[in-house]
Amino acid sequence: MTKTDHRKDAGQKRRSKTLPLAAFAGKKPPAPEWFNACLAAPFDSGSVEVSGTNICYKAWGQRGKPGLILVHGGVAHKGWWDFIAPWFTRHRRVVAMDLSGMGDSGWREEYDMPLYADEVLAAGEAGGAFEHEQKPVLAGHSFGGFVTLGSAVRHGTRYERAIIIDSPVRPAEKQRRTAPPSRGGRIYDSQEEILSRFRLLPDQDCDNLFLLDHIARMAMKEVRRDDGSTGWVWKFDPNLWNKMRYDMRAAVETISEFNCPVAMIRGEKSALVTDEVWTYMCKAFPGGTARFSIPEARHHVMLDQPLALVSALRGLNSCAG
Q1: What is the set of domains in the chain, with CATH numbers?
Q2: Exposed (0-12), middle (13-18) or buried (19+): which is 145, by Cβ within 10 Å?
Q3: Residue 137 class from Cβ within 10 Å (0-12 exposed, 13-18 middle, 19+ buried)?
Q4: pTM, to two decimals
Q5: Mind listing the pLDDT tens digit for each residue in 10-55?
Q6: C-alpha angle 212/95/244, rounded to 5°?
Q7: How far apart are CA 218 and CA 77, in angstroms?
Q8: Is the peptide bond before 32 cis (omega within 30 degrees of 0)?
Q9: Tens-place pLDDT, residues 152-167
């Protein structure tokens, strides 16, 4: 192979993507009964205004029960919890919300962590997670885990416990403090086309294609072009990361300011919360911090091992099923 060929091959590897839904040509993959039962579970939905922007939420279980609030990851949406939340309704009022700039919530001129913490609190209150004398539990995945940590500082006295799910807390000098590359904004011609382009970030394989299909369908919306034709786009603000105001303090620097207990869950095969990062987190967080490492799960824990994640959440005493 020539040097030129080698560079070309390396570039192709860098650009390679896992597009798991392309082979289905817009059709739904087969799904197990437990998943269908979760989607059939009764729920209600609503919205609340936070600092001038509409924040949408979805809620399961009876009002008046102790609350569980779930926060999705970056450029994701509340539908990532559709097959997790119903497992807790026997004992919990469960609320999942869309952070601003994502899902069905409104967009802002600027985004930041303190405002996201306010959105979580407001959606939880509007959704009925605070109507029991027992304080609600808050759990967030990935970027939502960092929102959860910020909430443990800003509004921690309102929560019984905060749980982070595969959110990589690193030493201060290694923590991300700048925006990742922007993405999204393209208009696709059909549902089939946009579904075929769906992929996970970070990129990974996932055996549960019925879960991927569900979150992809919930992530897109139909729009009308200037010429009157229709197309499909991803719901999140394509300028989200460019509009993000990053607090220059790293997550690890806020640990001493938590106002509620914090617990940690990770995927044992995570590309983000690696063994090295996990070891650091276990040392950095207070002694006695509850932690679970889920086998055969990568970063997107609820997609790789959804029922194991349910069990881990139930295993945290204050978050029983």
Answers
A1: 39-180+244-319 (3.40.50.1820)
A2: buried
A3: buried
A4: 0.92
A5: 443 444 467 999 999 999 999 999 999 999 999 999 999 999 999 9
A6: 70
A7: 8
A8: no
A9: 999 999 999 999 999 9
